[in-house]
Amino acid sequence: MDSRRYVMKAKRTPAWYYFAFGIIGFLVGLISASWTSRHSSAMVSAPWYLSASIVGVGLVVAWSAWQVKRFADGKIHKMAPERSVNTLIFAQSLALAASALAGWYAGIFVIAIQHTEVAYFTTVSWQTAVAAIACLIDLGLGILSEFWCLMPPTGEKEE
């Protein structure tokens, strides 16, 4: 058996990842919404409970990251190391997914807002605007949660 310890090398997510995911999501949402509006198909929107669920997931991840921060500050005395690593992974994936989804809903919104004379498109534009805002809230919660998670100092031996 190999006696070397494997150390996870966690890095902060670069800011340009969020912009890239947002732009890709925007383009995909724009293309899909324009295709569905041209072919008289039902446009994908987000019901109100989905926006609430999106924010709910962000709050759960932020609460877990707050617990990791409290452990790092010494206010909580016992925590499994896997929990802090998993929370960091959840925080990073939450922020990236929220960035892509915010772009997706913004792309749909751009197409739907052009047809607000029809009641269906008015509803779709409101729902996608609220969903995009919910995703932006999640993006902020994911970035904040990532900073709250404990990162090992560079260049020091781990105990």
Please characterize this protein's 3D structure:
With 159 residues, the protein is mainly alpha-helical. The protein has a domain at 49-150. Helices cover 70% and strands 0% of the residues. The protein contains 4 helices and no strands. The chain is elongated. It comes from Alloscardovia theropitheci.
Q: Could you give a short account of the major beta sheet?
A: none
Strand proportion, as a percent range, falls in: under 5%
Total DSSP E strands? 0
Number of helices: 4
Low-confidence stretches: 154-159
Following the backbone from N to C, one meets helices and strands in this order, namely: HHHH
Mean pLDDT: 85
How many whole angstroms does the radius of gyration measure? 20 Å
Helix content: 55-70%
Distance between the termini: 21 Å
Return the structural class: mainly alpha
What would the principal axes of the Cα set say about the shape? elongated
Organism: Alloscardovia theropitheci
Keywords: Membrane, Transmembrane, Transmembrane helix
InterPro entries: DUF3180 (IPR021517)
Protein name: DUF3180 domain-containing protein
